[in-house]
TrEMBL record:
<feature type="transmembrane region" description="Helical">
    <location>
        <begin position="68"/>
        <end position="92"/>
    </location>
</feature>
<feature type="transmembrane region" description="Helical">
    <location>
        <begin position="174"/>
        <end position="194"/>
    </location>
</feature>
<feature type="domain" description="EamA">
    <location>
        <begin position="12"/>
        <end position="148"/>
    </location>
</feature>
<feature type="transmembrane region" description="Helical">
    <location>
        <begin position="206"/>
        <end position="226"/>
    </location>
</feature>
<comment type="similarity">
    <text>Belongs to the drug/metabolite transporter (DMT) superfamily. Plant drug/metabolite exporter (P-DME) (TC 2.A.7.4) family.</text>
</comment>
<feature type="transmembrane region" description="Helical">
    <location>
        <begin position="98"/>
        <end position="118"/>
    </location>
</feature>
<dbReference type="InterPro" id="IPR037185">
    <property type="entry name" value="EmrE-like"/>
</dbReference>
<feature type="domain" description="EamA">
    <location>
        <begin position="176"/>
        <end position="315"/>
    </location>
</feature>
<keyword id="KW-0472">Membrane</keyword>
<dbReference type="InterPro" id="IPR000620">
    <property type="entry name" value="EamA_dom"/>
</dbReference>
<keyword id="KW-0812">Transmembrane</keyword>
<feature type="transmembrane region" description="Helical">
    <location>
        <begin position="35"/>
        <end position="56"/>
    </location>
</feature>
<dbReference type="Pfam" id="PF00892">
    <property type="entry name" value="EamA"/>
</dbReference>
<dbReference type="GO" id="GO:0022857">
    <property type="term" value="F:transmembrane transporter activity"/>
</dbReference>
<feature type="transmembrane region" description="Helical">
    <location>
        <begin position="298"/>
        <end position="317"/>
    </location>
</feature>
<feature type="transmembrane region" description="Helical">
    <location>
        <begin position="5"/>
        <end position="23"/>
    </location>
</feature>
<feature type="transmembrane region" description="Helical">
    <location>
        <begin position="238"/>
        <end position="260"/>
    </location>
</feature>
Amino acid sequence: MEEVLIVSGLVGIQVVFAFYLVILNRVLALGVHPLFVVVSVNLANSLFLLPFAVALERKKWPRTLNPVLMIQFVSIALGGVTVFQSLLLLGVEKTSPAIASAMPNLSPGFIFIIAVCLRLEKMEIRCKFTWTKILGTLLCLSGAIAMSFLQTPATTSPDITSQVSSGDIAEKEWIIGCGYLLASVVVVSCTTVLQAVTMQSFMAPFSLCVVTSLMGAIFTAMVQIIVEGKMEIGSSAISPTGIIGIVILGGSMSSVCITYQTWCIKKKGPVLVSMFSPVQTVFSAIFSALILRQLIGIGSITGMFLMFAGLYMVLWAKKKEIYDDADDNEKLSVNDVEKPLLS
């Protein structure tokens, strides 16, 4: 029953994320400001997770916060919340939920590259698992390029001249949106490595999420005030109450999903949790077609296939690399900075 609960729960979480991503696309299309969404979602996220942090991790809190830990908190909040989520929402607005949910599958490959560059992970040239991860990363990048340049957004203008013009604009917006999504993946990959390093001295994932979400919401609000001159929802046909309700509900749902995923990681490890991420892309495409009437082209399907293949190659190599043949042919666990937060 536990196996069934874990598998069905992980599938359900990806379906929920997919549906919420489609709803966010619709909300942004109606004129809601992306920065306001980031602020509201992270405030709801931090408030919902706070009781879990207090109940489960209070004894793990350090008595004093040293400057290094504070710098890590600020960096994670700026990168993982303000920059990453803002770029992600801009990418969702200009592309589609299906593409936006597919791009994060690049993260395991990027995390591997970053960890190697920072010498947090050893790169054995003669190791087949290392070459498998390299090949998987290249396949993911090829898929991202295919999704960015082989997709042709449809236009609905009846006039041929205006249709060509609007088609060019749509293609440019699509490529810009994919650029936003790619940049967001790079940022979140760097932040994930930093999170893994931080958790080596601050082993309280719920507390870390609460602190960084709250700080990220504050930083994002400051950015909007500096850029826009004020904190505003945006020009939308939806009432402010409705917008706030949708965003807070999404933040609460996200918190529930994070809590459940954390439990699954403790039970089965991060690799198993990561394997279900393509489910979100599939259901995002389904919901986009049913709700938003957005259909993905052959180029995007090809890109998604390459990304999924690359993702599973990297995850397979990571799973096998946990066991390393020692000189006495015994299997020893590998201490890997990618392992705690690979999902």
